[in-house]
Write a structure and sequence with these properties.
TIM Barrel; 12 strands; Sulfite Reductase Hemoprotein, domain 1; binds iron/sulfur cluster; 2 domains; 349 residues; five-stranded parallel β-sheet
Length: 349
């Protein structure tokens, strides 16, 4: 995925080319406004690499983006934001109709941090896997009934064990639906690579997974690393080289960080994530989860389950203790506050 503002055509095109050169067979770009679509049209004109678009909340944009892309990814958890009087089925029908007209594929991208609240409310809050599976099943059924066949689903979480469980459950119920695999917000190398490899090697050998994406928090110019890592993991699986369970960190400090995308409002985010990892090294043996997210759209929800969460705005970073906001701090100040919070948690444990 291009981790750039789509309207910055030069940077996005550079990112698309960088990912293509690294071996990506499909590159995703975000579109959330008419201006993004205009930029997308220019980008399309300047590259032949297959493009996928991430629709975000503005699902009506499907009509405008279809001439320029090969695939649309929509998140069932983001459809309810606009035109609340319309049903989910009607909205999916609109997207599918546009895709059909331009022979465009769809991905139903279900994400742990942004499950459709109506689906999530049907389950006990302690069960984070069932809502993901239910949402993927519901949308597969809607698309089936609409007669739309060119779709795949993804069921992503930042915890590789949950990714394995959710995908196994879905695949058992719908073995006919292609699955796009990924561990979302896996974090920085090396931890993020380990999490992704752990999930992939438990699913791919049993026939689950048709396409993959590796999400790592990396500086712009190193984004191609996601593709290299993905291909290396596949090669290792093919060669029968698996991580033994003893190599997997079970417990200890867990840092989750998003791969960044067009929604990042301050490029200092990647550096912040790296600083968080260095600063919290002293806590490596403690069972603490810290989530570092790049934007204010998904950041608040996707940090709720962490012991400590940081999500970035243009000038300030929001620091959370569980779901409770500790405060807003500058990019430098927040590291000092975070260290205090980590020390406090260690004392409490
Ligand atoms: S948390 Fe925000 S910036 Fe990070 S990948 Fe998700 S949408 Fe993009």
């Amino acid at each position: 995925m291009a981790a750039t503002h789509t309207q910055d055509i030069e940077a996005t095109l550079q990112q698309v080319q960088l990912l293509e050169k690294a071996g990506a067979s499909l590159v995703r770009i975000a579109a959330d406004s008419i201006k993004d679509v205009e930029a997308l049209a220019e980008i399309r004109a300047q590259t032949v690499v297959p493009l996928s678009v991430d629709l975000q909340e503005n699902w009506r944009l499907a009509k405008l983006v279809v001439p320029y892309v090969d695939k649309i990814r929509y998140n069932p958890g983001h459809l309810w934001h606009h035109e609340k009087q319309m049903s989910t089925r009607e909205k999916v029908a609109f997207i599918a109709e546009q895709a059909e007209k331009h022979d465009c594929a769809l991905r139903v991208g279900v994400n742990c941090g942004s499950v459709d609240p109506e689906v999530a409310n049907r389950f006990d809050p302690s069960d984070s896997i069932s809502p993901i599976v239910a949402s993927a099943l519901e949308h597969s059924e809607i698309l089936d009934k609409l007669g739309f066949t060119r779709y795949c689903v993804s069921l992503k979480d930042s915890d590789p064990k949950k990714v394995v469980e959710a995908n196994k459950r879905f695949a058992k119920l719908r073995p006919d639906v292609p699955i796009h695999l990924g561990v979302t917000e896996a974090g920085m190398p090396l931890g993020g690579i380990m999490k992704t490899r752990l999930a992939f090697e438990q699913l791919i050998p049993i026939g689950i997974g048709d396409t993959i994406r590796v999400s790592l928090t990396l500086p712009f110019e190193e984004k191609g690393e996601e593709i290299h890592v993905g291909r290396e993991i596949l090669e290792k699986i093919e060669a029968g080289e698996f991580l033994s369970l003893s190599e997997i960190q079970d417990g200890g400090l867990n840092i989750i960080s998003c791969p960044s995308c067009s929604r990042v409002e301050n490029e200092a985010f990647v550096e912040l994530a790296q600083s968080v990892r260095e600063l919290t090294e002293f806590a490596k043996d403690n069972n603490i989860t810290i989530a570092v997210m790049g934007c204010r759209v998904n950041g608040p929800g996707e940090t709720d389950d962490a012991d400590l969460g940081l999500w970035c705005g243009p000038t300030h970073v929001n620091l959370k203790r569980g779901p409770e906001l500790v405060g807003q701090f500058t990019y430098n100040e927040v590291l000092i506050r975070l260290k205090d919070e980590v020390e406090r948690l260690i004392e409490l444990h």
